[in-house]
Amino acid sequence: MASLDTSTLLFEEKPLHTPSLGEVRDVLAAGLKSNFATVNVEVVECPDLTKAPFHLAGEGLNGSATLVELGGVPYLLPLVDRTRLYDVIAVSQRALHDTGKAFVAYGAGAGPFPLVNSNCEGIFNLRFSPPGTVVSESHLAKVSLDRKTVTVQKIPNTETRCALLGNLLVAEGKRGKVLKVSCKKRSGPKDFIASIRTCLEAHYGEQTVGLGGVFLLQAGKAKQHVMSPFSTTSINTEEELNEWLNFFDMPAPLINLGILVTTECDLDLRLQHFHSFSTHGHGGHYHIDTTPDIVEYEGYFVVGERIVRVDKPLHTHKFGRD
Questions:
Q1: So what's the pLDDT on residue 322?
Q2: Nearest one of 275, 288, 272 to 139, comparing CA atoms
Q3: Rounded to the nearest 5 degrees, what angle is found at the Cα of 134, between the Cα atoms of 271 and 171?
Q4: Is 37 helix (H, G, I), strand (E, B) or coil?
Q5: How far apart are CA 265 and CA 282, in angstroms?
Q6: What gap in Å lies between CA 52 and CA 35, rounded to an integer?
Q7: For 252-305, what is each residue's pLDDT tens digit?
Q8: In what order do the strands lie in the sheet containing 246-251?
Q9: Is residue 319 pLDDT above 80, yes or no?
């Protein structure tokens, strides 16, 4: 099943507010203390993310950092639109204005269901080098027929499709200065990403700030979901959605990729979306840790320069975005 012709898709772009890393560091260092007992926020040189414990396709996060949202939940719910298949490489090239440079694409979305003949979670982790070399460390997670177990598998270099929806950081993949956020022992009700996002939202108000990158769940467990096969009956409420989703407690270490934004920027955006993979067979859509007393997080982020909205659904709704 072919992906959609990227040249025919609607691309909408807006600049983001881009405070300095030092300013964001100070905002988070103060704000995150309301949700974690131990907080350390620094501006550091990006480590080589191709190495353990990260296992990313590119070394860094820097260079024309662009946040991209593909499609949306309305293409999945209440009933699936199977035509919504996107080529991550082609979309990323256009989002970067076809500069001809190498780039990475990291993030969360619905996986390439034609590859495994099943709905699945996608953990996108790609590097593209002109004229056409793709290095993929992407994974997908799918649930068993009895909905009791999850299988995580590598996606081959030849498969670059994302289905239905996705939230990606697209950048040149250079190493440079990044924001390092370390938190231990969750004392409040918010997950790691929501804690960061709401701190920024409280400080910057209507100015939209976005971050993209990777975070590690280093200790503890996380509540994660993996979708069921596509529903043949309409899903119209959060209750029906939660019956269809499959929730699991998954153990550290988990490598999470995605983006966050503080407002919808009048583009019908999903405010946060991170998916995880691991070297021990676990992966899925991150919700929150389930072991607050022992949890440890370490994240590396860049500030997005632009938000690019691709193929925004004409008919939208607000459920299913947690």
A1: 80
A2: 275
A3: 40
A4: strand
A5: 34
A6: 28
A7: 999 999 999 999 999 999 999 999 999 999 999 999 999 999 999 999 999 999
A8: 36-45, 177-186, 296-303, 210-219, 254-261, 272-277, 284-289, 221-226, 246-251
A9: no
